[in-house]
Amino acid sequence: MEYALEIKDLCKSYNTFTLEDISFKVEKGSIMGLVGRNGAGKTTTIKAALNIINKDSGVVKVFNKEVSDVTEDVGIVFDGSTFSGDLTVTQLQHVLSQTYSNWDDARYTELLNRFNLALEKKIRTFSRGMIMKLSIIVALSHGAKLLILDEATGGLDVATREEVLDLLVEFVSEEDNSILMSSHISGDLEKIADNITFIDEGKIIFQELKDKLVYEYAIARMKDADFEKLQTKEFIAARKRGLQYEVLVGDKEVFASKYPNIEIGNARIDEVLTLISNSN
């Protein structure tokens, strides 16, 4: 198995927050969704992995090489603009063509036209959606093989989000391109991710194939009497909510076959995250 990104035992401590032994891998040609509540550690993980902030310990490899600085093989999109607002898109092109050895003017222009970004408009006048499109266009125009996006679709309108998601899927479909995408919008990841990693309070709490989460995992809802009949090995997490229990199971069909009288339904990614995070 070849990996675009490997993170092992990544740690970073602050006075009020600790990132503890974060480990996961992003396969070449895949999209990994990094999911968690605000403040769970998604951004800290990304910044520490890329040496944007100093990590305390851990090993990070990009295309099997240990990371010391961000390379042109990696395209990064953070939540917000990293470009000078005084530049136009055309002026930015001139700056970046001198910055990146693999800069592709034709690709940049093609994507600008595709997404109708005004060439002579100051970047500070752009909407959030336009900024996100521009950030992704730049990442795709310097030969990046791995995109790392931190809440890149947050706050976008539905139409713009769909455009961005389509572009990301198109990127991964080309050769061995890969994406690590952090988000608290689970619906976006349900559409495009191959694997999901849950992070909460600075720790990885769960990793799974997206399709398995969507099609095999389920949430059963039951009264106390039915819950007491379950064996611990038959469910992943559970919580009491009002007068009933919500129980996360890993195989909907097996559970439904054994307990046909218990209500059970498919689980969305955000429901899985909430249930695991609040399990009692």
Share in β-strands? 25-35%
Characterize the biggest β-sheet: 6 strands, mixed
Number of domains: 2
Give the overall pLDDT as a whole number: 90
Number of strand elements: 14
* Helical segment count: 10
Provide the CATH superfamily of the largest domain: P-loop containing nucleotide triphosphate hydrolases
The CATH architecture category of the largest domain equals: 3-Layer(aba) Sandwich
Name the helix and strand elements from N-terminus to C-terminus, one letter apiece: EEEHEEEHHHEHEHEEHEHEEHEH
By secondary-structure content and strand pairing, the structural class works out as alpha/beta
The third-level CATH topology of the largest domain is: Rossmann fold
Principal-axes geometry comes out as elongated
Strand order of the largest sheet: 6-7-8-3-9-10
- Rg is 21 Å
* Helix content range: 25-40%
Low-confidence stretches: none
Look at the structure and give the CATH class of the largest domain.
Answer: Alpha Beta
Distance between the termini: 37 Å
